[in-house]
Design brief:
- This protein is α+β, with helices and mostly antiparallel strands.
- The protein is 23% helix and 30% strand.
- It is built from 2 helices and 6 strands, in the order βββαβαββ.
- α1 packs parallel to α2.
- The protein starts with a strand and ends with a strand.
Length: 125
């Protein structure tokens, strides 16, 4: 049985997907981009501001699911430009300073709403 996770502290889905789904004590968080949950606008135009908002959005979804960054086992990071790797990596590291999860980081041609970074994760509860 699956449970759909939704919080108003993260942006509403901009397509036919859920913010997260819980199944068998695992939470699968959909990719978050740097949208502010109230305005549904980007937190800022630069990758650093967007990356911080992405992590705060993931934090809100994880907490709503009964989890947290300390329980994340895998992340996927998508960048609009690999030149943004260092900036995103530094911000990401603030949230995973102890026993960081597995992850991959890839650059892609285009991301939703032409954002600069998108991150998804899987965690346990």
């Amino acid at each position: 049985m699956k449970k759909i996770v939704h919080t108003s502290d993260a942006p509403d889905a901009i397509g036919p997907y859920s913010q997260a789904v819980v199944h068998n004590d695992l939470v699968y968080c959909s990719g978050q981009i740097g949208l502010d949950s109230e305005s549904m606008e980007f937190a800022g135009p630069d990758v650093a501001t967007q990356a911080i908002q992405v992590m705060e959005n993931l934090k809100a979804v994880l907490e709503e699911a009964g989890s947290g960054f300390d329980k994340v086992i895998k992340c996927s990071i998508y960048l609009d430009d690999m030149d943004n790797f260092a900036a995103v990596n530094e911000i990401y590291g603030r949230y995973f300073d102890h026993q960081p999860p597995a992850r991959e980081t890839v650059a892609v041609k285009t991301l939703p709403k032409n954002c600069k970074v998108e991150i998804s994760c899987t965690a346990f509860i």
